Amino acid sequence: MVHDMSGGHETAERSDSLGIADLAVERTKERFPETDADAMSIVLWLHRVANVITYDLESSVHRPRGLSWPAFRLMFTIWVSGTMESKAAASQSGMSRAAVSSLTNTLDNLGLVTRTADPSDKRKILLDLTDAGRVTLEAALRENNVQESKWTAGLAPDEATELVRLLRKLGDVATDEWVNLRD
Amino acid sequence: MVHDMSGGHETAERSDSLGIADLAVERTKERFPETDADAMSIVLWLHRVANVITYDLESSVHRPRGLSWPAFRLMFTIWVSGTMESKAAASQSGMSRAAVSSLTNTLDNLGLVTRTADPSDKRKILLDLTDAGRVTLEAALRENNVQESKWTAGLAPDEATELVRLLRKLGDVATDEWVNLRD
DNA sequence: CTCAACTAGTTCAAGGTTTTATCAACCACT
DNA sequence: AGTGGTTGATAAAACCTTGAACTAGTTGAG
């Protein structure tokens, strides 16, 4: 399947983490024939593709700007929803409340996010972006999207639509009672 | 669109992290019309669905057995490929060499993994599962697959096939030169 | 045969995440 | 009002990850 075989067994060098998924399913199926191979393939590929893309985005877009991937996610969430309670920010960004607490602490010190007590309920903390935070986030967001575009350029428009539809369908399962969610 | 409006603004409770993706794309498109919305949707959904599933698998299957998700991933990699160099384990499991080094240290102490020097090249370390490691992994693997099955049960067989095809296509981009990979 | 360049693995510091525990504030019921 | 039960946020301890620096072993060009 691969053109250049010159190196003997040195063929696959760049990111084995993807190529290995099929072998993994094969071996598991051999050893445990009752395995649901489709389920396994989906979860493996999902996880690995998401990981590779996330690593690329974080290392090529966000780290050079001084943001971690979680910091970008959290700031983006606040940017989208506007002033919001810490708890809502956690659930919408997919982190635990503790993670948001510690991350906002960092971002507050960097002057990117503000934390103010909610006057109507003093337990609550309202998060918002500072002007500097907004500027930082918007620049990162644009560059992030350019990079996302490079990743998905190979998919036809209808493939993109279908992929999102299937991911959405899979994500809907999260509303089932047996699913363990953060918090 | 939603049936129950009784609570006023208390409608969406379980995992907002999924519902928010569409709003995020909308807002970004408003603010930056040049945004590639398809690319953004794909990456957002990919990341969030992968995260929710991973969290569920880790917290419901692996933590109760005393394994972290990374530990499971690494042990699974070794289980699939057999005795292997630390470097290969890193690239196939999608972690950095440093992460593998620290993780194998833990797993070695737990008696799940062995590290032996390669006689032919003393720089190299060969990793393998112990018998206990194999037993532990295989039990976790079976339970993991049962849970994966629950997640994907809602997809028709052809949808499952198509989803994997599209993920694979997306993953293939990782071979492009501009992509930042771990290591 | 030797020295420079490279490679495999480890270590370190810094930061992020998790779970569990704690504390403060709120709410509802008597 | 008070008291018990929630809820929101933070703190602590343990673990994982990253990038950079470091050690040691290997390779190969002259």
Describe this structure in words.
- The structure is a homodimer of 183-residue chains.
- Chain A is mostly helical and 183 residues long.
- Chain A is 62% helix and 7% strand.
- Chain A contains 7 helices and 3 strands; from the N terminus they run αααβααββαα.
- In chain A, strand 2 and strand 3 form a beta hairpin.
- Chain A starts with 15 loop residues before the first helix and ends in an 11-residue tail after the last helix.
- Chains A and B meet through helix 1, helix 2, helix 3, helix 4 and helix 6 of A and helix 1, helix 2, helix 3, helix 4 and helix 6 of B.
- Chain A binds a DNA duplex (30 and 30 nucleotides) through helix 5.
Low-pLDDT windows of residues of chain A: 1-12
Count of alpha/pi helices of chain A: 7
Radius of gyration of chain A: 21 Å
Q: In angstroms, what separates the terminal alpha carbons of chain A?
A: 46 Å
Give the strand content of chain A.
5-15%
Biggest β-sheet: strands ordered side by side in the sheet of chain A: 1-3-2
| Helix/sheet category of chain A | mainly alpha
Largest interface, C-beta within 8 A: A-B, 81 and 81 residues
Number of strands of chain A: 3
Give the mean pLDDT of chain A. Answer: 90
The percent of residues in helical segments of chain A reads 55-70%
